[in-house]
Amino acid sequence: MTCYIGLIRKDADSDFGVDFPDFPGCVSAGSTLAEAQQMAKEVLLGHIACMREDGEALPAPSSLEDIMSDPENRDGSPVVIEVD
Fold it and tell me: What is the strand order of the sheet 2-9 is part of?
């Protein structure tokens, strides 16, 4: 089992958004926190499946410390997504 970290972000007038620092361009959203977490897992699994189909190597998961040390990520709340 491998774990990747997504970052949940929310502006006052928006849904909850989720992005994955290890997978640029892989984003999701949900109107509730629970929905955002569920959608994050679905989009990440789909993104990984497409990468595998294309023969692309998956990135090694970044540590929480590395992700949160980037100033662009400090406004996000981490969520751990497990993948096989």
Answer: 27-30, 16-19, 2-9, 77-83
**Domain assignments of the chain as residue spans, ordered by start:** 2-83
Whether this prediction's pTM lies above 0.85 is answered by yes
Q: What is the pLDDT of residues 22-59, one digit of tens each?
A: 999 999 999 999 999 999 999 999 999 999 999 999 99
DSSP letters, 22-68, are TSTT-EEEESSHHHHHHHHHHHHHHHHHHHHHTTPPPPPPPPHHHHH
Taking the chain, what is the end-to-end CA distance rounded to the nearest angstrom?
A: 5
* Cβ–Cβ < 8 Å for 64, 78: yes
Fold entry, domain 2-83: Double Stranded RNA Binding Domain (3.30.160)
Q: What is the pLDDT of residue 66?
A: 97
